[in-house]
Each structure stands twice: as C-alpha cells, then as structure tokens.
C-alpha cells in the first residue's frame, strides 16, 4: 500500500490550483480580445483595446466611427453574451448535477428550453398579439418559466421535490413543447423558418448591450449565493441523508439549487436560444480537472464555460465565412465526442 | 449528551412506519436498535438526524428538541454513518472525511490547520490514514465504512448514530468496526441486524416490531427465548462465548 497521506487524486489540486485559475482567467481575457478582433472586418487587437479603453474610461485614442461601431456596438456585446451564456449554463449544470446526482442532468432537463422555444417560436411565427407584445425574448422567458412551474407542480409530492420525478416530468414537458414547436415550424413560411431554426439551435449573433444586463445580474447573484453553499453542495452530492446528518438543511438547499439553476437557464435561453451541451459537458470536464469539490468546481466551471463558448462562437463565425453556423451545432459537434470519451473513461476516473 | 425520544410517530400516507416509540440513550453507552426488516430502525434514526420529519412525538438531545435547532447546530450534536452513501463522485478520502467539519464552518470559511489535524487524527483512529489521498469509491466496503466512521468522528459530536454499519462487510471488518464503536466514549445508537453482534456489543437493546416498541433493556432482558421466537420466529439462547466469555446469542430454526 503506498503511503500517500497528503496526496490528492485530482489532476489539479493544492498548490497547483491558484495558478490554474489565473491561467484560465488570462485565457478568458485573451479569447475575448481575439474574438472581438476577428470577423468579416479584421480589427487588430491593439485597436480593440483602444476602443474598449475609450468606452470604459473615456481616455485613450479616439477610434474612427466605423471601428467604434463594429467593436463596441456589435462584437463586444456578442462576445460578452457568449461568455455569460457559457458561464451561466455551466453553473446551472453544476447545480443540477449536484441536485439530482445524475451525471446526465443538464440545464434543459426540466423542459426549460422546450418551453422557451415554444414561446419564442410562437412570437416569431404566429404573431399572436399577447405573445408578440412580449417580443421573442420576453415570450421565451415566459415560456421557460411556465414550463418550469408545470414541471415542479407535477413533480412535487406532499411538499417534497423528488429528483427522479423532476426528470420524468421535465422530459414529458419537453416532448410536449417540442411537438407544438415542430407543428408551428411546419406552418411557418420559409423566411420565418430560417429564423426559427437559428433561434432553436442557439445564437448570440444579434446581441446588443441591453441584452446583457439581466443574464449578467442573474449570473453574478447566483455565483455569490452558490459559493456560500459550496460545502453543503459537496455533502448533498454524497446523498440526501448523509447531507442531513452533516447539518445541512437538505430541503432548503434543494429548493435553492432548483431556483438558481432554473432562473439562470431561463434568462440565458431567452436571449441566446437553446445552446446545448455546455451545461452538461463543462461541469464534467471541470470535475475531471479539479475534483468534485464545489468550492473549486463553481469558479472553474464559470471560467471554462465562458472560454469555451467564446471560442465556439468564434468558430461559428469563421468556419463557413461569410455564413454563420448556429452555435448549438458547434457545441454539440465538439461536446458529444468529448462526452462519449468521458463515459468510456469514467470507470477509470473513479478508481 | 442524552438522547430522549418520546412518543415518536411517523406516518406516510396512512401507513404507520413508527407508532409511539419512546426510548432513552445514556452518555457513554451503546444502544442497539434491533428488529426484523421494516420494523422501523432506520426510520427512527432518520428522525434523529433530521433526514425525516416525524409526524408526532419529540426527539430531545440534551433536553433540546432536534427539530427546533438550526440544521448546523443539530450537525454539531449528532453525527451519522448512513447506508445511503452515493459513490458516483470522485471525492478523495480526505475530502470525504473533511466534510465532517461542515457544521463547524461559517459561509466561505476555509479549512484551517486544525481541521486538517482533526481529519488526520480521526483517520488514524480508524486505521485509515494511509488512504487519505485515495478516491473513496475505490476502497473496499469495510474500508469505506471505516472512512465514514472517521467522518462522523470529525464532526466532534457527543452523539453518534449508525445505520446497520456492518452490512455487506466481511466478518473481520464487522468485528473491527464494532470494537472501534464500542471503544468510543459517546452516546451511541446503532441499528443492527445481527442479534449476536447486538448482544455482544450493546449495553442496552431496543426491540422494534412493525413500527412499535416491543421490548427495551439489557440484552438478556430483551432477547428472552420467548420474545425472539415471537418476533423472529427462531429458537435462541444466550450463553457465555467459548472464546471471550462475553454473553453470546445462539439461534436454531423453530420447531
């Protein structure tokens, strides 16, 4: 038996953890700068920094109006929305995987995305006045909240929410929502259909500054709250009864995790569409790197999720220029093989 | 600290899992909960460690009702080794054991040197220091139970609850674990399946049958041949153990 009293089985632990976080944070800043610089019109990174400095501090060299418009009005909000969506969906995935202790749990497992899609597609195709008044984003948010409420109502059993019932109810509601969405698509005219498809597969293309406010606030609040609950989340990941015995208020924590992950997902889906696989894959990848301790999993998931989606968005704009590929297609193309590799490696990882 | 249970009742959808059970566990003693499968042993323990809210009755620890304490304070009074531990996560042994410090920590408070010392000392107590850097799920069943006991000890609580801690262990690991538990100077309440172990390792026994208290007292008082025959349907006798001289229960099929 090797006597490894202070060793850790995780890839990145102990003294290697702080530098790893610093590297990831640096990678995020770098990828944001590069993503803003690359596009149909190339803007050198130096000029990007000038524009950002001018707009943030009022100082720096005054950029020409066209560069100002490309960098500040179009690309920066888009790239920041990609970063926010990646961070937020990853955090939502962390919450849900701790909550239902199911490795397949992702932010859409409770039908959030199906509800949001239905709302958005209704607004885009039918122009039903009540729905149209909300706009696509508003309708998507209303749809996701509605589907969440239905799922929770179906899954609650004398005041307790059961993980397995939640998943079953979520799957059922998702099928229902997707069926109606599919029907609406068949009725849509070709130009609407393209917009619908793009929305369903996720896109940050149309992002503007006002789109960022609500997801940013939601992500910030959830991050702070969840970081204070990181230890109880660790306990919960080892079992409800075990957590109760360790002095965790299990029911309250479960409700907190549900509310946090659902709101995060709803807020992001309503501005960026159904970006799949990020919330499922990023938390798994992070646990492989730093281990399952949520005090590390939460911050690293935020950073890695943000970097991942910024880079994926960059790919969607550059792979097939001048066309754009929906972001959800690229996340799935990259995410699925990774996830399968993960599944095959799982037994080994647990040893 | 004393554990006092008064008239504990748990009903789930008209089915009584526990009906009006009362018992007292004294500091420095091991109280064994015995009874056939489904007699309410785990249900009773779950009410004490706040995994299940009873529908009636009271659980007092040191004269405070546990369901009126905050969950954190309750976690500083009782620690538990449960049966439900999820293995599908990559926690290391050291991380699992360090979770025992949870009820002693504030929001965002980091692990201190003394937390690490406590973890190390408790792992040493159960003879598992060597495994600190291992992945918990990769240990054998007996090793895992010892690690979970170390975690419970890390909570530094006066009351320790164990839910069938010897299930699925080989006989050597069973006896090792029970010896460890008996040597602790805590208020121990243990749900235990094996009547022989119950007699050998518990100071007092509480016999549950179909959710009701059937008998309570010393092993000899509770496990009379008549009671064992009635509840478990087997013949039995308590005899001195040929090797240790301690009381020992032997059984034989009915008839």
Automatic annotation (TrEMBL), chain A:
GO terms for biological process: siderophore-iron import into cell. It is a multi-pass membrane protein. It comes from the Bacteria. It is found in: Cell membrane. Its main location: membrane. The chain crosses the membrane at residues 21-43, 79-100, 107-125, 131-154, 166-186, 198-227, 255-277, 297-315, 327-345. GO terms for molecular function: transmembrane transporter activity. The keyword Protease does not apply. Coiled coil: none annotated. GO terms for cellular component: plasma membrane. Keywords: Cell membrane, Membrane, Transmembrane, Transmembrane helix, Transport. Belongs to the binding-protein-dependent transport system permease family. FecCD subfamily. This is Iron complex transport system permease protein. It comes from Streptomyces harbinensis.
UniProtKB/TrEMBL annotation, chain B:
It comes from the Bacteria. Coiled coil: none annotated. The keyword Nucleotide-binding applies. Residues 3-235 form the ABC transporter domain. Pfam families: ABC_tran (PF00005). Keywords: ATP-binding, Nucleotide-binding, Transport. GO terms for molecular function: ATP binding; ATP hydrolysis activity. CDD domains: ABC_Iron-Siderophores_B12_Hemin. This is Iron complex transport system ATP-binding protein. It comes from Streptomyces harbinensis.
